[in-house]
């Protein structure tokens, strides 16, 4: 007897099991997103854009309209869609390379213009699809293929703190939070609020999700989880950073 | 707020950039995404002044990459979206346009060529031919109209929207800084009054559910295997080659008995026409051929035009970018090739006359 796995209604069952590596956090972020879409009942209204990098593997992940774009360019494509048809609910889904390196000017300017879209950025501290190179989010001392002796902050600077940057450049109406796949209920809450913020027409919504890459981290299950839960939050504080209507949002964990 | 910006036929005297904005309105374009670069800026200036009166939209993006990709997004959402650029901006636009090629997204891009490479000059050249016809990491699955007068700028900008939406290949208007900035007279018209049917756009994403049910669309430009990509591109190429003869356009004059055929495109054709007229008046057998579509290139028509001629003189404000297209198209013919290349500067009828006389000696 087989037990049917629990999947969000908005998932495309025909493309499951998904194509992400075992232990990858994308599946968890997309599960939280799928449940948020289900609970909001917006499956028929969502346009989901994904980037190049591991996120492109989500091009047929959902039973929602989807477009897979170029590295770093998902934000402008989704902005173009939203501007042309404000009735659809637009999600730009990307990795840390796409959002904080090659596509950073798009993220910055979409945030500054308060585009009514929801950007979700998965932070796994490396360029995973291309084989584990250093990313803007690679932690100090972290070894990658292009920082084989560990990230030297004297040479390469400190990890990009994306939500803090977005919070600093957005004005009233923006929603900014950082969640983690280590706390899925909280992540789902943030994603849902980010979508609701767009639906209310308030402004730019941005959620970073701390995630895992056991393949390129070369970690076993225990070490993977330890890195996610103990190392990453030292630089990347989990919590809501900006909430519309609230002057200074606390970090509610 | 009216739906038809141009009532009846209207004789006007305006700059090329203004003409493009009027043409986009006449073609019922919905939204422009743009980024400033000279010499195309006034397209945005006029569009932003007129568009709100007709319920149209505009977004000024952070760079040309974004202008190109938001245009792609606008088209995906089912709007007639367009953008305009030049020079280094055209270089950046090749990335979004290659996505449009791969996903058959009917984008419209107006290029007002400036000098190159790099920043170079801001006014004029014909140096964006190679990039506009074959830019991007692909096969050049696109349509490029090269205009030579303001009337053509109006006619072909309207046509570009129809071509793009009919064939689903990114479509380009390749003009230049002279056309962008100078004023000349032309007739504005509402295309539908002339029996030109405007093709309605349709959404590729964000379609309304039918009978309460929605079948999602999944678009990608990534393929898992080489064979999978080979199949897709072979199919696209077959479709492109099949429709190419319908799309190709050209103009020729005095070719039948000519010893020399002057080949040029865009504004240089104006000098070529003038030169041929002057040479004919002097009893010299010279004709001209001008491809209007640079991609697909009317190669067979050119071969036919030069069949009795001894020499083909290729004239362009670039160093052989048109010549490359010509040589590729006429491969196998034994005609003598001569060139008048002036990268980044204009060419007068007098210069072409002098060159032809020298060749006829």
Structural features, described:
- With 253 residues, chain A is an alpha/beta fold.
- Chain A has a seven-stranded mixed beta sheet with strand order 2-1-3-4-8-7-9, with helices on both faces.
- Chain A has a single domain, classed as 3-Layer(aba) Sandwich (Rossmann fold), CATH 3.40.50.
- The radius of gyration of chain A is 17 Å and the shape is globular.
- In chain A, helix 1 (26-40) packs across helix 7 and helix 3 crosses helix 4.
- In chain A, helix 7 links the parallel strand 7 and strand 8.
- Chain A contains nine helices and nine strands.
- Chain A has helices at residues 26-40, 74-84, 96-102, 104-112, 153-156, 162-169, 184-199, 214-217, 221-235, and strands at residues 46-50, 65-68, 89-95, 118-123, 126-127, 133-134, 175-180, 205-210, 239-242.
- By secondary structure, chain B is α/β, with parallel strands linked by helices.
- Chain B has two domains: 9-194, Thiamin diphosphate (ThDP)-binding fold, Pyr/PP domains (Rossmann fold); 250-360, Rossmann fold, CATH 3.40.50.920.
- Chain B has twelve helices and 15 strands.
- Chain B has helices at residues 16-26, 41-50, 64-76, 87-103, 129-134, 150-167, 177-181, 226-247, 268-281, 299-305, 321-329, 349-360; strands at 10-15, 31-34, 57-60, 81-85, 108-113, 143-146, 171-176, 183-188, 218-219, 250-253, 260-263, 286-291, 293-295, 311-316, 336-341.
- In chain B, strand 14 (311-316), helix 11 (321-329) and strand 15 form a beta-alpha-beta unit.
- Chain B starts with 9 loop residues before the first strand and ends with a helix.
- In chain B, 52% of the residues are buried.
- The chains are: A alpha/beta (253), B alpha/beta (361).
- Chains A and B meet through strand 2, helix 2 and helix 4 of A and helix 3, helix 4 and strand 9 of B.
